[in-house]
Design brief:
The complex is a heterotrimer of chains A (337), B (290) and C (236).
Chain A: H1 2-25, H2 29-55, H3 62-79, H4 84-109, H5 114-134, H6 136-139, E1 145-146, H7 160-184, H8 186-196, H9 198-203, H10 208-234, E2 236-237, H11 244-257, H12 263-281, H13 292-306, H14 310-336
Antiparallel strand pairs in A: 1-2
Helix pairs in contact in A: 1-7, 2-7, 2-10, 2-11, 2-12, 3-4, 3-5, 3-10, 4-5, 4-10, 7-10, 8-10, 11-12, 11-14, 12-14
Chain B: H1 2-32, H2 39-57, H3 60-83, H4 90-112, E1 117-118, E2 128-131, E3 134-137, H5 138-160, H6 162-172, H7 174-179, H8 184-210, E4 212-213, H9 217-232, H10 237-257, H11 262-276
Helix pairs in contact in B: 1-5, 1-6, 1-8, 1-9, 1-10, 2-3, 2-4, 2-8, 2-9, 3-8, 5-6, 9-10, 9-11, 10-11
Chain C: E1 4-15, E2 18-29, E3 33-37, H1 44-52, E4 59-64, E5 67-68, H2 74-79, E6 82-85, H3 97-104, H4 110-122, H5 124-128, H6 139-151, E7 157-161, H7 169-183, E8 187-191, H8 195-201, E9 204-209, E10 212-218, H9 219-224, H10 226-233
Parallel strand pairs in C: 3-8, 3-9, 6-7, 7-8
Antiparallel strand pairs in C: 1-2, 1-4, 4-5, 9-10
Helix pairs in contact in C: 3-6, 6-7
The chains are: A mainly alpha (337), B mainly alpha (290), C alpha/beta (236).
Chain lengths: 337, 290, 236
Amino acid sequence: MIKTLQKSTWVYLFTGLMLVLLPFFKDERWFLFLMIQIFVFGIFAMSYDLLLGYTGIVSFGHAMFFGVGAYSVAITLDRFEPSFMSLLLGIVIAMAVGGLIAFIAGILTLRLKSHYYAMLTLALANLFLVLAEKWRSLTKGNDGFTFQIPELPGGLEDHRNMVIYLFCLVSMVVIFFGLKRLTESPLGKILVAIRENEQRVVSLGYKIMPYKVIISVISGVVASFAGVLYAISIRFVDTSVFAIDMTLDALLMTIIGGVGTLVGPIIGAGIIEFAHHYLSELSDVHWIFERWIILFGILYILVVIFFPSGIVGTINHKLATRKQRKKEDEQSDKLAS
Amino acid sequence: MDLFINLAINGIATGMLIFLIACGLTLIFGLMDVLNFAHGGIFAWGAFVGVWGYSVTQNFLISIVLAVIAGLLIGLITEYLIIRPVYGNHIQQILITLGFMLVLSEFIKVVFGPNILAAQKPPFLQDYWLVGDVTIIKYRAFTIVVGFIIFVAIMAVLKYTKIGLIVRAGVMDKEMIQALGVNIRLVFIGVFMVGSALAALGGALFAPSSGVAYAEMGMEFGIFAFIVVIIGGMGSVPGSLIAALLVGLSNVFMAYYVPSLAMAVTMILMFLVLIFRPEGLFKVSGVSNK
Amino acid sequence: MTNTLLKLEQINTYIDQFHILQNVNFEVKSGEVTVLLGRNGAGKTTTLRSIMGLNSALSGQIVYKDEDITKLPAYKIAKKGIGYVPEDQGIFYDLTVGENMRVGMRQEDEATKDRMEWVLELFPDLKKFWKKPGGQLSGGQKQMLSIARSYVNDNDLLLIDEPSKGLAPVIVEKVIESIEKMKEKTTVVLVEQNFYMASRLGDSFFILDDGMTVHQGDMKELRENEELKRKYLGIA
């Protein structure tokens, strides 16, 4: 078991290294930007997976954490001088507010059936959307606003996109391993047990509410951070960060990539972002590509019905059964000889 | 006073439209324990089919009937393809119906084009009546009457007919009703289709009153309907009427006096209910919220 | 063979991963009251639920009137003329007594109406509470309603699960009387812990223990077999 874990860790690290080197070979602006989007949404989708895949909580308002993160950092950088101190302050505010909202939503609804959390978060996200539209003095309403990010020292400023690329990549890798540690810790095990059979965990004497709230908070904080990265990478923020589409994107990425795997959401993010990019371009060829979301909607429904564990989950399962079969074959060979 | 009555009528009319979506949702939830997040999509389909039907036939009644038929059909398809594979699994239900919602909305754009459609009121409902100082817009009065008739009809069916009793009994104890010789699956499909048809009717009535039909209205009103169902109590038809009127009235009044808070007031209502009375205003025995 | 109404052969039933019934066999003769006895958790309720199709058996065969009903859904089994009075009575709380009765009717024809009148004579209390919601009835009234609801259909077999549970002796007596009357019309499978009731009504018995049929015979035999009673029923 430990050996296989190490193997997969090496694979992840190797892939990460390849991604570090990638922009030195292909540094067109649109490509870097696409990759940054993938990293940002990879983080966002991982935070979603933490809820859905590891704890069985469905959130329909995940966009609000994302949006809170984006607006926090944007407003801080806009109001104060665009220094690294302001950036840091913005990030701290983003994560604190995100965590607080997740905490409140959690204690209100996690004691109820799953759809209450879904509904409450949906409603909350809507409230934030309205707030962002109406509180014009702070958010400039529907138009949104651009802002400056801190200038990088020395010659790095010329390679700003590259630096942001690397920063987002490193953030994603660090968060990935952090969350992986978390899910493999005793806390993570309890969460999975809650997802599988809540009653049994209760009867074993665990109070499940605190665990669910903790995970809701961690997820909210990570999602806020994804929002921070998003805002920094495009240096612009508007109310679309609170839109239900953001949540739906995270949902699609998580489901198609594979719930409960952490790698899945990242792969899902890659697929969706690339598809978004290329399929939209294909709309001249056939109108269906302009409505590419239909294809993904149908794919998503099929995945929920037939491969509830997504791409990565299904592959893992296949590998596991193959390994098992191999073992059995070896054993029977031994017995035969 | 004039203004107050006008706003009140407007609010009740809005509430009735929301009720039409919410009552199907609440019945489907109560009986089948299924949360159908695609319900709003059927509302949007009803709106588009109604608008299209009216532009083709110039007959309001036929356009409504077409919308209702579309609702029945989409309901059947939804139950058969989407809900059936995921009975008993809440999380999968939420996920899959939300996905279907996306597909329904996008399909509207495929069939009717991506643009907003303008919707007309039929000539006989275009004007208003003057009662003393109060102007009553005919179409709003019409909406209120239709909503009220539907409510009374649903209540009468649930109260006095055998099938209504079976539906109510099924909400409380699915197993026992089967042990009494009722094929609950057929009842499920029927309720699902009727609930969907009501949503489509709501959409078909909504479009002329707002003057437009757009694909995103499904999501918007689907959320409204869910909030109403939560406030009213999952599974309760009178609860969803009261909650729908409450939401309709508070929205209209807020939109007039404090426009920026119009949306927020609905959410705040839901928060209060969730905090102090998570089972909703009208609790239905046998439906748990845990 | 001709007067066997119901036969269970090698029935195995699981609830989740738990193997509740393990090769249960028994036979119910037409016109008799067969009593299922055994300790708590022996599998009596599950046996009734398996017959009713509410926990379908994984393997084995349930034959009713020479027809295999093992895998049929519950509603089809009910339509074949099997009535069920569950342990928790299965009353619909928000429905009135009258509505509960009406929901229970598989047909609304003359014969059913006649039976309804007969049932109401048997349980005059129900008439008194006709418009009262089922949830507001006392335990005894609920039990009577549940039994009455099963009598109203033209059933050939009644499955009654612990009707005496939690009831006052006076009401138990009433329930016994009603089952005695019903016995003339249909066959009954009765799950009962109350040995007094079981021995008054039963013609034959089966004892379940740990999900297996361990003993069977005539009720008369059991009344005299002190050891059997002590071993499986905890009655001295």
